[in-house]
Amino acid sequence: xxxxxxxxxxxxxxxxxxxxxxxxxxxxxxxxxxxxxxxxxxxxxxxxxxxxxxxxxxxxxxxxxxxxxxxxxxxxxxxxxxxxxxxxxxxxxxxxxxxxxxxxxxxxxxxxxxxxxxxxxxxxxxxxxxxxxxxxxxxxxxxxxxxxxxxxxxxxxxxxxxxxxxxxxxxxxxxxxxxxxxxxxxxxxxxxxxxxxxxxxxxxxxxxxxxxxxxxxxxxxxxxxxxxxxxxxxxxxxxxxxxxxxxxxxxx
Length: 252
Description:
Elements: E1 2-10, E2 13-21, E3 25-31, E4 34-41, H1 46-56, E5 66-72, E6 77-82, E7 121-122, H2 123-133, H3 138-143, E8 147-152, E9 157-163, H4 166-179, E10 188-191, H5 197-206, E11 210-213, H6 219-228, E12 231-237, E13 240-245, E14 250-251
Parallel strand pairs: 3-6, 7-14, 10-11, 11-12
Antiparallel strand pairs: 1-2, 3-4, 5-6, 8-9, 8-10, 12-13
């Protein structure tokens, strides 16, 4: 963040004010020496961002697929070497999700999916998670210019990340999980953003069964959630929330 002198108007009166402004960086991603993607991002946690991005795009399936990586601060270039580089579908990095998908496009999740334990979360825990989640981001409190995403189990929030891009914030969470070898199949994703089909595609690929947001989902996101076994919770504010798909994971 940086401080910048601005003018603000309150009840018609102009005054000088030093406001907190979020920084934005452009980072070029090179995969196996090929320029592949451009991130507009909050300039922190680049390893988590790139790892989660590649994981959510199914370019890598584990941290072992990464041979080496480094970030050049002078050029804002992130270079990564990946095994089986010739098999990478580079167009998938920028192509939005298609409506013509089938069950083989993603790793399907459903209520009968074989986990160590079926993921059930108490409704009171959902309220508690969101109350804590909404208080986590100091950057949002100061700037109002970032999205936040977090990963929790059924007991507590494990970690969270901010970014100017909602997809970036989620990718950082996924990347942290991959780097730390955290099992995501029994975790919950909390977000501040609208739940779009692109967001749902990320959590289908990472096998996260529940997503909670204070914002609503889109119709196509709900369609994907129903089809691929994702519990979608939106408008989680105060002591109310809406469940749009797979309500069986919520314990009254």
